[in-house]
């Protein structure tokens, strides 16, 4: 039986269940006779917030409400890294490359959305480290099972950024700080209630010299000098971007219809390779993205209970890498001539990435307690490359294409305090690339193509033992398709791997949430989750120790992850708030043998890391937040906030831990302290904030022991008006 036939049968069976399910008599009968009715003197209509409604879904989801951080200079990456199970690992300061990890899954295993729209291949200009916290109303963090409506091939979870929905407002801010860092943000909307015409915009600007001090052992004439403190001298970064949308709201033909444009660009000096040992002084990279968009949403389209929304975009991203200076730099900014006329390999590489994106959702309410959802997502990625320094490079003329299709069908049901969601997904992939076939020690590049089809499925449920005591459980068999950067490389530090296979995983999540109030003013919320992941063909970024500029995505094989995370929140009145969270993840390499292709056939060798932790991944980390809010100072709508933040990471190995306790390839235990304070007057119309990050000036590291900034200060002013 072909996979297509299996997929069709599963979809037909699920559709049949969806149609008869509500008629099985399991839903509670809320009808009452006249004699059972009681006289009601007063009625209070209460509506749940979007954040509360999302938390009550069957999925394991955290909701971060960003309003508290509107006066801060935090970007969304910095905000998210304070959430249980999340680590955002950066190579340096503002604008540096980063790796996002959630419950042990990292990189492209996680999917990012902007108002439910996939952000795949938006380019480095439109990434979370460029978006200010004030751009979002809230951020939804799904761990494990992802709702059908998002339509993603996410293996470990998804991040959905919900932009602000105010009908009429303007929010402008500017901040300046250490390392000549500048950040500006502008958000707003205008809606004419008579005509329904609406205009929305979001914009940002970021700049930094990133000239912070680092501790290194400079190399002179191939000899390492004693460790000393030096300044980063070639790490400048700037980014500018925004989104504008024009359309109508709340009309008979559309709840929302918007035509929009996303545009952004950035410029980045490249200071180091993958490790601190290799220093660059003239290499640069840049990226520009232009993305026209269309959004349409209509509830009760054609018939009552049938909701439809559609999103379309065409992404045009241009990436450039320049390396033409024939010098070798060290940390003392000393140079020596280098053959080849470049720091690495002479290049002026241009990549033209084009991607069409279509996402459609259809939801139908079969019954007040049962709804059916259908989602389809199509992405078609093409890349064309050129390099004036290598006009005859045959690899730049080879095809580079990746097309993905994801079709999902799900049923959401309620049975009193029990809510369930069952679903199935089809994953289709077609890739076109090339490979090097050596013939008599001569490179011979040939075109390759591959197609893969997979079927996933799962179930999620939540049960309310009490109105504020909730238990959750979910299971899924899922796939994650490789992304363009993983298959095709980035042209700079990451090389292609045309033989990369999709990841697949069986995931289990168990969790509970309990909230209670003591003496009206003391509010406590506790949440704990257990995770289990059994992954096959796990995709991981591999770094060759003897090649500090080259890394590649590989299939590790089998990886088993177990973990637990917990968080406790406490607030007193509306004055004092605090939280503490801790995450532990045990990620074990379960691949017994490593298969390597050679000219004479496959070479099979034992995996020396079998049964040990996968290296270069933090396994124990946590956060502490303490805040004090002083309201109505002077009785004129003045409010002050003071907040203390602590981030903790336990030490972990960069290389296999079985090398022994004296293994020098280790990132040490780290504590990062931050203090933030802001003051608002006129009901929040005028705001000023000051911040100090890495208060104790600790040495902080990430990835392959890349040193991060020391103590830094920021000052921010913000103006906010709304109607």
UniProtKB/TrEMBL annotation:
<keyword id="KW-1134">Transmembrane beta strand</keyword>
<keyword id="KW-0732">Signal</keyword>
<keyword id="KW-0798">TonB box</keyword>
<dbReference type="InterPro" id="IPR000531">
    <property type="entry name" value="Beta-barrel_TonB"/>
</dbReference>
<dbReference type="InterPro" id="IPR012910">
    <property type="entry name" value="Plug_dom"/>
</dbReference>
<keyword id="KW-0998">Cell outer membrane</keyword>
<protein>
    <submittedName>
        <fullName>TonB-dependent receptor plug domain-containing protein</fullName>
    </submittedName>
</protein>
<dbReference type="InterPro" id="IPR039426">
    <property type="entry name" value="TonB-dep_rcpt-like"/>
</dbReference>
<keyword id="KW-0675">Receptor</keyword>
<dbReference type="InterPro" id="IPR036942">
    <property type="entry name" value="Beta-barrel_TonB_sf"/>
</dbReference>
<feature type="domain" description="TonB-dependent receptor-like beta-barrel">
    <location>
        <begin position="443"/>
        <end position="695"/>
    </location>
</feature>
<dbReference type="Pfam" id="PF07715">
    <property type="entry name" value="Plug"/>
</dbReference>
<feature type="domain" description="TonB-dependent receptor plug">
    <location>
        <begin position="55"/>
        <end position="158"/>
    </location>
</feature>
<dbReference type="InterPro" id="IPR037066">
    <property type="entry name" value="Plug_dom_sf"/>
</dbReference>
<dbReference type="Pfam" id="PF00593">
    <property type="entry name" value="TonB_dep_Rec_b-barrel"/>
</dbReference>
<keyword id="KW-0813">Transport</keyword>
<keyword id="KW-0472">Membrane</keyword>
<keyword id="KW-0812">Transmembrane</keyword>
<comment type="similarity">
    <text>Belongs to the TonB-dependent receptor family.</text>
</comment>
């Amino acid at each position: 039986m072909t996979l297509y036939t299996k997929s069709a049968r599963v979809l037909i069976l699920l559709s049949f269940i969806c149609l008869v399910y509500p008629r099985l008599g399991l839903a509670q009968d809320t009808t009452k006779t006249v004699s059972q009715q009681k006289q009601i003197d007063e009625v209070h209509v209460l509506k749940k917030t979007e954040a509360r409604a999302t938390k009550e879904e069957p999925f394991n989801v955290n909701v971060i409400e960003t309003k508290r951080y509107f006066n801060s200079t935090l970007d969304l990456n910095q905000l998210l890294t304070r959430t249980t199970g999340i680590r955002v690992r950066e190579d340096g300061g503002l604008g540096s490359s980063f790796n996002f990890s959630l419950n042990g899954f990292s990189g492209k295993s996680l999917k990012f959305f902007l108002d439910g729209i996939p952000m795949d291949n938006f380019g480095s200009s439109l990434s979370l480290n460029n978006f200010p916290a004030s751009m979002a109303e809230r951020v939804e963090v799904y761990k494990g099972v992802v709702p059908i409506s998002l339509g993603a091939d996410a293996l470990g979870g998804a991040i959905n950024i919900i932009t602000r929905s105010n009908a009429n407002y303007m929010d402008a801010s500017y901040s300046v700080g250490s390392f000549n860092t500048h950040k500006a943000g502008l958000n707003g909307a205008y809606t004419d209630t008579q005509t329904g015409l609406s205009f929305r915009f979001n914009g940002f600007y970021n700049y930094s010299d990133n000239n912070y001090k680092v501790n290194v052992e400079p190399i002179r004439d191939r000899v390492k000098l004693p460790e000393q403190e030096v300044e980063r001298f070639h790490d400048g970064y700037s980014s500018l971007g925004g989104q504008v949308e024009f359309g109508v709201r709340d009309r008979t033909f559309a709840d929302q219809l918007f035509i929009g444009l996303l545009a952004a660009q950035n410029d980045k000096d490249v200071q180091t390779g993958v490790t601190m040992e290799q220093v660059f002084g003239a290499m640069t990279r840049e990226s520009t993205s232009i993305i026209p968009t269309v959004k349409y949403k209509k509830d009760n389209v054609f018939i009552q209970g049938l909701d439809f929304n559609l999103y379309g975009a065409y992404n045009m991203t241009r990436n450039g890498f320049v390396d033409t200076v024939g010098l070798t730099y060290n940390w003392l900014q000393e140079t020596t001539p280098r053959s080849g006329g470049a720091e690495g390999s002479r290049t002026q590489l241009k990549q033209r990435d084009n991607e069409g994106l279509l996402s459609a959702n259809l939801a139908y309410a079969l019954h007040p307690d049962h709804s059916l959802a259908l989602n389809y997502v199509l992405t078609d990625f093409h890349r064309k490359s050129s390099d004036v320094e290598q006009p005859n490079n045959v690899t730049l003329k080879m095809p580079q294409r990746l097309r993905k299709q994801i079709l999902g069908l799900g049923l959401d049901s309620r049975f009193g305090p029990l809510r369930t969601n069952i679903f199935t997904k089809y994953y289709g992939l077609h890739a076109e690339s090339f490979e090097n076939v050596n013939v008599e020690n001569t490179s011979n590049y040939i075109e390759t193509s591959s197609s893969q089809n997979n079927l996933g499925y799962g179930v999620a449920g939540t049960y309310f033992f009490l109105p504020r005591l909730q238990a959750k459980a979910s299971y899924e068999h899922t796939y994650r398709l490789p992304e363009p950067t993983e298959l095709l490389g980035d042209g700079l530090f990451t090389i292609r791997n045309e033989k990369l296979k999709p990841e697949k995983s069986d995931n289990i999540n168990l969790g509970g949430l309990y909230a209670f109030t003591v003496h009206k003013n003391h509010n406590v919320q506790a949440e704990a989750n257990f995770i289990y992941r059994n992954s096959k063909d796990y995709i991981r970024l591999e770094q060759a120790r003897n090649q500090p500029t080259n890394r590649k995505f590989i299939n590790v094989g089998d990886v088993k992850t177990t973990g637990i995370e917990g968080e406790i929140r406490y607030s007193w009145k509306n004055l004092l708030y605090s939280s503490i969270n801790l995450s532990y993840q045990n990620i074990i390499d379960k691949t017994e043998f490593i298969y390597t292709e050679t000219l004479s056939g496959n070479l099979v060798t034992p995996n020396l890391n079998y049964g040990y932790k996968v290296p270069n991944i933090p396994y124990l980390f946590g956060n502490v937040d303490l805040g004090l809010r002083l309201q109505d100072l002077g009785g004129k709508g003045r409010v002050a906030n003071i907040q203390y933040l602590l981030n903790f990471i336990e030490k972990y190995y960069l290389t296999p831990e079985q090398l022994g306790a004296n293994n020098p390839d280790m990132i040490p235990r780290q504590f990062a302290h931050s203090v933030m304070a802001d003051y608002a007057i006129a009901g929040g119309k005028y705001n000023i904030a000051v911040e100090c990050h890495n208060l104790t000036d600790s040495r902080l590291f990430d990835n392959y022991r890349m040193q991060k900034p020391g103590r830094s200060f920021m000052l921010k002013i913000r103006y906010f008006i709304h109607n």
